[in-house]
Design brief:
about 170 residues, mainly alpha
């Protein structure tokens, strides 16, 4: 995989711009799909969680602006478990799905639901960053965890494919 330079020093501007545009015109809330889709896109391309470590605007904001006010405590161990991350991912997908269904797939309502969803997770990330380390949200981020699950699935399938090829050659 090609080494990528981190853009974390400036990508926080993207999330601030998203919220400003959303406040000015709610239709810009639909851009939340890009924020949620980017980590999945990178993972599906076989790039793992590169989005989280190099590009994520939310992580960039949390790291840049919460460092001075954060209590710098580690996240409790139970929240770092796979089970906890799966629960958070499931809850977020469920809430998001019901929000989208409730909109009747009307553009403005979908944009508002996305804006609200992004805003709530942003606020939760800020609260977690103040009470724990600045980028604590990144440890439980549903999109990052989903990207990690995709990467894990891809690696397992690659290993199974290699085993099949090895078995076929020896037979």
């Amino acid at each position: 995989m090609k080494k990528r330079k981190s853009q974390q020093h400036w990508t926080w501007i993207i999330i601030i711009t998203f919220f400003i545009l959303g406040f000015l015109d709610i239709r810009f809330g639909i851009l939340g799909f890009i924020c949620m889709g980017a980590p999945i896109y990178h993972a599906l391309r076989g790039e793992g969680k590169v989005h989280c470590s190099k590009y994520c605007p939310r992580g960039s904001f949390l790291g840049k602006f919460l460092a001075r006010i954060s209590m710098q405590r580690p996240l409790p161990a139970y929240l770092r478990t796979r089970k906890a991350k799966n629960i958070i991912l499931t809850v977020m997908i469920t809430v998001f799905s019901f929000s989208m269904l409730h909109t009747g797939f009307e553009f403005n309502k979908m944009a508002f639901a996305l804006f609200r969803f992004m805003g709530m997770s942003f606020i939760i990330g800020i609260i977690m960053g103040v009470f724990f380390k600045p980028r604590t949200w990144c440890q439980v981020c549903p999109m990052g965890h989903g990207a990690g699950l995709i990467t894990e699935y891809q690696k397992n399938n690659e290993m199974k494919l290699k085993d099949i090829k090895t078995t076929a050659k020896t037979s």
